[in-house]
Amino acid sequence: xxxxxxxxxxxxxxxxxxxxxxxxxxLGEDVGVNGGVFRATAGLQQRFGAERVQDTPLxxxxxxxxxxxxxxxxxxxxxxxxxxxxxxxxxxxxVNHAARLRTRTRxxxxxxxxxxxxxxxxxxxxxxxxxxxxxxxxxxxxxxxVIPSSxxxxxxxxxxAIRDPDPVIFFExxxxxxxxxxxxxxxxxxxxxxxxxxxxxGDDVTVVTWGAMTYETLKAADQLAGEGVSCEVIxxxxxxxxxxxxxxxxxEKTGRLVIVHxxxxxxxxxxxxxxxxxxxALYSLRxxxxxxxxxxxxxxxxxxxxxxxPGVARVIEGIRETLED
Amino acid sequence: METIADFEIRHSQFLDPQxxxxxxxxxxxxxxxxxxxxxxxxxLARIFDTKAINLQRTGKLGTYASCLGHEASHVGIGAxxxxxxxxxxxxxxxxxxxxxxxxxxxxxxxWGGDERGSDFAGPxxxxxxCVPIATxxxxxxxxxxxxxxxxxxxxxVSINGDGGTSEGAFYExxxxxxxxxxxxxxxxxxxxxxxxVPLELQTASxxxxxxxxxxxxxxxxxxxxxxxxxxxxxxxxxxxxRRGEGPTLIETLTYRLSDHTTADDASRYRAREEVEAAxxxxxxxxxxxxxxxxxxxxxxxxxxxxxxxxxxVDLAVERYINTPRAPVTAMFDYxxxxxxxxxxxxxxxxxxxxxxxxx
Lengths: 325, 359
Ligand SMILES: Cc1ncc(C[n+]2csc(CCOP(=O)(O)OP(=O)(O)O)c2C)c(N)n1
Ligand SMILES: [Mg+2]
Fold this sequence. Notes:
Chain A has 325 residues and is an alpha/beta fold. Chain A has helices spanning 6-20, 44-48, 60-72, 91-98, 101-104, 134-138, 151-163, 213-225, 244-254, 269-281, 305-308, 312-324; strands at 2-4, 24-28, 53-55, 76-80, 114-119, 144-146, 168-173, 182-184, 197-200, 205-209, 231-235, 238-240, 257-264, 290-294. Chain A folds into two domains: 3-183, Thiamin diphosphate (ThDP)-binding fold, Pyr/PP domains (Rossmann fold); 197-324, Rossmann fold.
């Protein structure tokens, strides 16, 4: 059994799927000889050759666009966008093509591609390297937005994303790439998409989160447990389409909901989750829904980064306020 | 069949790597002071660079992009421009920015994670550093449109790398500039590498200068380690622009002697021999040799120039280190001209969370 970090789990899933399915092609900037700037594709080119692990020219619209082309013609491209800040030139291809090729052609063509995008702050990176734009993509019908929060889920969800017949944006929380190791057997077993994962069961409050913020949220839950507060922590994992059922069921049990994300608060993932709960479980709520999120500001450069990021203290503050209401 | 279009790309070099003139030098090169100033600027950029890397290694600076080896390309651009021209750089062209008046401590602030580094006291109309590759080419084209509309004899200059020529924004900028005859100069600093991707994987094009051809604008390749060539051709291109004759693309051939940034390890993907060979062609030696042969430079001058640069860099570092972190309110106060009412509560919350205080 392999003990791996989240990023090693990504590499393991890529290698597993490339070995199993020769249609899988890895492409992107610096993914070949260099093995990716985060090393997610380390060793893959040596193992699978320069045709299946391709260093591309520097152009994200091209990377996404050729992935659409390849996917429509029977390949399984897994493309890397180096950082979330550089995904924007690719948006035209993602929104106007990847997301709707199946709909436009009434299923004649479809687009089984994965776009891996390291995202989020907290690593003292330069400008445009720390944003959390996941909600932008979750708002676009026709694409899945998947975000792992641990090595095991990175492995299982990435396998599922590659095997899925439709496009997936796979946001990788770079802050936790190397934070924790887990035993992840390389069994090739995928985890289900479109479902939430309950990380911790509890009765007093439901705390919903995803990506790197699962760490702060679990820490907050631990700390509050010492004070006799029992938190149910849910990792959304697939932000779109959302598994509302798991969240609603939990809120029906706890009567309270806090949503935690690093992205700016307004129009973020939390807004949709709050709306869904308000629509379906309003009468189960004993207190108003709360969001613990980034401010509605530009992600600051790193000297102010820690002020922007919702840390454990802010998560605890949010949960406490909900309990005190 | 007949040939209806044809092109040729010319390469220009005035000083070879040994500092031997290969051509009649442009007029500005007859002035000793001009040459000495350009040399001193390249040396300053290099000493600043070494210091910045040390700061990063000792945890006092964030990720930093070195300019080692590019000094002639950068200083040549800065020296050719007039103050009223407009620079749209990418992220490592310190030689050009410093020449135009940006301060070293401001550059350090930027890489130290502080937005005030982009609020430089220097040329207030210049664009800040630009990390999203090649997007700045369009800003230069737009700046040039503004000057053209107002009938001002000014030019905009964008700088991007060899990798940047693969982006759509780069081609879109060349094309609109050609179509509208904009007063803009597109500088392509070809240092052979885009992080780990060598030029051969970036493009099948024999030169990057020829990317101008499809846009219907002139393109030239110059020796980017020859500061005289860079300055000369940028000056010519700027004159064309000011005369209303339209844009120019200039490719400067140089080499990235450092890792891509301090976060990179170039030994993973390129041979040491290649770097060593490129080091022989670096830009400072040749200008120094040229000046020494003509009695314009000697060891004594070199030592004095170096000492002056080290002192200036040390002062800048001190100023950078002693700049306190901005208050948390800075996150909110530059979002819009005035803070929208809806954000006031968040701003207050941020202040309270930061421990209250005056900010
Ligand atoms: C749009 C975009 N994609 C990717 C990156 C990540 N990145 C930063 S620098 C770089 C390579 C740039 O190479 P080049 O244009 O040759 O400039 P150089 O760094 O060599 O000066 C890449 C891929 C980025 N900053 N912006
Ligand atoms: Mg380059």
